[in-house]
Each structure stands twice: as C-alpha cells, then as structure tokens.
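Standup notes
- HV: blocked on the assembly model, inputs below
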Amino acid sequence: MIEVTVAGLVDTVGDNLVEAPLVDESKRRITPLDFIGPLVVLALFVGGWYFMNHWGLRHLFDRPGYLVPPWHEILYDSFVREIPQPTGESITPRTALLNALFETTKLTFVGLSISIALGMGLAFVMTPARWLERSLWPYIVALQAVPILVISPVLGAVFDYKFRTRVIVCVIISIVPIISNTLFGLRSVDQGQHDLFTLKGASGWTRLWKLQIPAALPAIFTGFRISSGLAVIGAVVGELFNRQGEKGIGILMDEYRQRNQFTYTYGALLLSSLLGIAVFFLFGWLQRLATGKWHESAQTR
Amino acid sequence: MTDTRMTDPGRNPTGQRWTPVAGDPALEFTDVSKTFKDGTRALDRTSFTVAPGEFVTVVGPSGCGKSTLLRIASGLERPTTGSVTVDRTSLGYVFQDATLLQWRTVRDNVGLFAELDKMPRADRQRRVAECVELVGLNGFEDKYPKQLSGGMRMRASLARSLVMDPDVFLFDEPFGALDEITRERLNDELLGLFQRQEFGALFITHSIYEAVFLSTRVLVMSARPGRIVASFDVPFEYPRSHELRFDPAFAALTGDVSRALRGES
C-alpha cells in the first residue's frame, strides 16, 4: 500500500485513502520444493527401474532382466562407448543417435511449421466466413480422429517412404489444435472491446491486427504447445513406417529393438523424449515472451 | 401521465450555475423508441436534450433501457423510430467495464481512440501524457490493465476519451462495480474534470446519490419500456465538495428523485 502514494492519486481529494494497484504476481519466488519434488519422483523412477532390472522382471514377469538395462549402462553404451573395429578405427553409436536426433528434430520443425502456417491461415480465413467454417469443420474433426498408426503406412504406399511422407504424417497429427485454438481465440474477443473499434469505424484489417490477433495470442500459443508435443509423436510415428532416406530416431529405435540392442533402444527413446520436452519448453518460452507481461495464464508455467 | 417532452435546457428556470452556450444542444433525442428483434420494448418515445456543458444523469431501475439509451446515443444501436442528433466525431465513452485492451499498457490504451482516429503521433503522445496526468495515473503509464485496481482501470478508460477532447461524454454506469469509497472519490474527481474540461455529459446510473451529486439535471426513467417520467434540476453550485452529500437540501432532493423512481409524486 505504501509505495503507491508516489502516484499522486490523492491530490484532488486530499485524504490518505489510496487505491492500491493489484499485486504484481509475475515474479513468483522459486522455492526448494520446486526442485525437491521432481527429484524425488525421478529417484523413485530410476530406483524402480533398477529393481526391475535386478529382480522384478525375472521374478514378477518371468522375463530376463536385460530387457530393462540399468541406466548407467544405457547412458554409457549409447553416448560414451567407442567400439574398436578390426580396421583400427572405432565406431560409436553416439554418432548415429545424434544424427538421428538431428533428422527427427528437422522433421518435427518442418511439420510443425507447415501446421502453424496452414492451420492459422485456415483459421484466419474461417473467422469472418461462418459458412466456410461450417463446411470445413466436420472434416477437421475427422482429421483429428484419423488413427495415425494406420494412415502412416498407407500414406507411404501412396507417396513414397521418404521425408515428405513423414512430414505429411506429422502435419496431420499436429494441425488440428492450431486451427481450433486460433479460431477460438479470434472469436472470443470481448464484445465491449469490439464496440470500441465499431465506435471509431475501424476497418476489418485494423480490427484484426489491433484487436483480434493480440486478443487471440494466448489461445494461439496454447495451440502451439499442444501441437508441438503432437508433432514429435507424428515425426517418430511417420518415421516408423516410412524408412527410406535418412534415419531418424523412430527408425533407429526400431532397428535396435529388432536386434535386441536394448541399451541403444532406450538411449534413442531418451533422446526422443528430450526432443519432446525441449520443443514444449521452447513454445512455453515463446508464449511468455509474447504474452507473459499482460496475460495471467502465461505466468505460472 | 407525465409529458415525455422535456423543457429546453436553454430556458432552464433554475439555471443558477451553468449558463448554456447559445445554439443547438450537444445531444438531442426526439421521440426515440427501440424495440428489439425479440419484441422487447426497451425505449418508448424518449425525448430530451443535453446542452453543451450540461451534466445530465438518467436514473432508473435495472433493465429499464438505460444502457440502450446510451448505445443509441453512441451509434452502436439504431433507434426503431425517432431521431438522435449528435456529433459522433466528438463523443467520449466510458462503459460499465473499463474495456481496456489487456495487451496494451496504460499509455497505449489511453492512446487507442487517438490512434484509431489517426491523430498525428506527436499530438497523440502529448495528449496522452496530459490526460494520464488529468486522471491521476501518472507513474502508471507502463503498467498493464491486470496490474491496476478497478478504479484505476476506470481512470484509464476515462482518459482514453479525454484525449479526444469530446464535446459530450457518455457514461454507462461507469462506477457501478466499484466499492463506495472509490466511487465517491471518482465522483469528486469526475466533477473536477467536468469543470475544467467543460464537456457535456449523459450519465447513466442506478445510484440516486451519485446522480444528484454529479448532475445539473436528473432524468428519471420508468421500468421497461423505458420512458422519462420526471426531470429534476439540481441547484447546487459547482464546485461541489464532498460535504454536499450531508447537506439537508441534498437529502431532500434525493428523496424527491427516489419518490419519482417509485412512481409516487
């Protein structure tokens, strides 16, 4: 209450009752609990994993323990170990894994970019044209319902089993949240705010740029974040069934599995998870950058 | 039955303080009726004028069409019959909600109307700075709406129109959602602005005290379909101090308005 007296709000009235501005909650203090909780969960997970490796899988499921190799072996085999070859050189699976990670990352971003451009474009066109939305909406819903595991090999047969087909799979799975969130955002502008622009006789473009798009940004970025996770899934699934060309994580993971190289399999799995997490946080960061100062939902996570 | 046609403010018999500028009224409603598509009759043959520099308040029960009256005045709604005469290029608006754009700072919100009217940048910046100062928001120019209290949002909303230096201000229950202390303070400050800036005002409220405290004239509306059933000239001198609220003459007049609202007279 004290620091607001500088604002000079009271000079016309002259008593000491001052309206306090609302507390700025954007700078939430980070407590130790924010780290301890997740670390405890991680410890439980890794502990459970070692338990399954040493005893659980054999005695509870009657399966050999090497199917879930211990984490130190997974990390060492996948990212550290160098295997000497008769030729004198040595190969390391790390190279193949990181190349695959690069390939899948590329695929994810190409797919996601197309989804964003196409999805937002569609939403912008559909916003003023209700008839277009009514015509397209059933098929957008249908697109969301497409079983991606089934359509992926079919698309491979129709196009080819290379990069472009993987991109298509990635787009199919990640475009719908972009469309629906953008549309929702553009439509849900406060009527009172619309009135302001009506009163000033603003053109449709002015209304779109200065009112609807900024108002829709939080919803649009929420769509980006949902889609970014889906795009990683789409990329890996797209690769699983379309294996010609460069090898991505999805292809590598399946190859290792077929060869019973489980440390590598889990190493690849770890990388694909990290990719998903990284993309999710990237868009969370972009959202905070774009709307963090003025929108509530962007603050807490 | 009360005649819906009001006296011409230019011939206001008790006009003790304000001396209306000669010539046309700043805002004139002539036999305005409004019936919505669903058949609701919101307004019934409403006629009144607001002279330049006059502060006219409309009080009435909830749902009597007060807001419709204002939306018609602003041009957001069209009357079903009757006519409205007003210069729409010189109107100020303060609505029930502050309707600030949440992604804009106070400074950019206050400059919105000027921006939409394509006021030159330098003029706009100067006017925005002046008006932020006028409503007492200096120091808060870079804050976002979510960082402001309800009263401060209303100040920003007021400043947004002040920038345009309007001839007539339309207020739609602007302080209805605020606590009483804030509301009285903003009433005091609004009167200060009214005297300095010399705009005409059409103010909608359901608070009789607010109406009498602010206005030169109070119009009483009946329940739906809304029509103006009584008009009271408010004789108190400006500047009006906070103490006026405890004056017996003030109490007597609010009593008269209240009785008119209840249909006794």
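- HV (later): unblocked. The CA atoms of residues 55 and 215 of chain B lie 5 Å apart. Chain B has a mean pLDDT of 86.
- Next: hand off to the docking folks.
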